[in-house]
Amino acid sequence: MAKIVFLPHAELCPEGAEVESLPGETVLDAALRNGIDIEHACEKVCACTTCHIIVREGFDSLNESSELEDDMLDKAWGLEPESRLGCQTRLADEDLVVEIPKYTVNMVSESQ
């Protein structure tokens, strides 16, 4: 089992968090299962960018992004070379350090 370290995010996890992932689980599912409510407006079908994350450590261990994910990421706010969509990022056996960007493309959160 790999662990995911979420860096502090002012609203979602102010102190940061460390969670265990299940085999083959996505970063988004691991976060949600552990009470980190990363937005996911399209219900995890790679049709939006609200679950945009930046992988600060462990990026090379992840599954390769699809062409659809890459196209969606082009629309994400604050895109970086290590950006991924949390709903498409499946963990391998290596630990990750993840940053949740402060903003999404949504003007209003879907969770409110």
Question: Keywords, please?
Answer:
2 helices; five-stranded mixed β-sheet; 12% helix; single chain; globular; alpha+beta
Please tell me about this protein's structure.
It is a single chain. By secondary structure, the protein is an alpha+beta fold. The protein contains 2 helices and 5 strands. The protein has a 5-stranded mixed sheet. The protein is globular, with a radius of gyration of 13 Å. The chain starts with a strand and ends in a 13-residue tail after the last strand. The mean pLDDT is 91.
Could you give a short description of this structure?
This protein has 112 residues and is an alpha+beta fold. The chain has helices spanning 27-33, 67-73; strands at 3-6, 17-20, 52-57, 83-85, 96-99.
